[in-house]
Amino acid sequence: MPAKAKQPWDQCQFCMPAKCCTYFAFEIDEPESRKDYEALLWQIAHRGVSFYIEKGSWYIMVDSRCKFLNENNQCGIYETRPYICREHSIDSCEYTADEYGFEEHFTSYEALLDYIKENTNFRFKRHPSLPETKQEEWSPKLPMHA
Predict the structure, then answer these.
(1) Which of 2, 7, 59, 60 falls 20 to 30 Å from 102 in CA-CA distance?
(2) The pTM is what?
(3) Which tens digit of pLDDT belongs to each residue from 60-85?
(4) Cα dihedral sign for 77, 83, 87, 88?
């Protein structure tokens, strides 16, 4: 008897990092003014906030674990999960992708400040308390499993 063909949704139950359930992101207007960049710098100064550019569009990403993930990183409301979760395609799955394909990903205040300096005419003073080298980035802590 031939082996049962693996269905795309079967992969979700084996995705222990549950990557798509540990953040949310939405498109934002491309920054154009000094005020726009100041707002982005203020936002990225908060823990768990990053920005990325994908296909020319800007996005804000907020690391925030879904409250419905159980201790095994599986959805506790799978049968009644929201539409956006049901529509998430295996084609865009972070777990199976080789890379996430962002043109730029700003995970720190310093990285965004460097981008602004290199790509715009706007200048912001680096606060003396900021390190010159990039410090270790914050990432959400997922439960450890044996």
Answers:
(1) 7
(2) 0.72
(3) 999 999 999 999 888 999 899 999 98
(4) negative
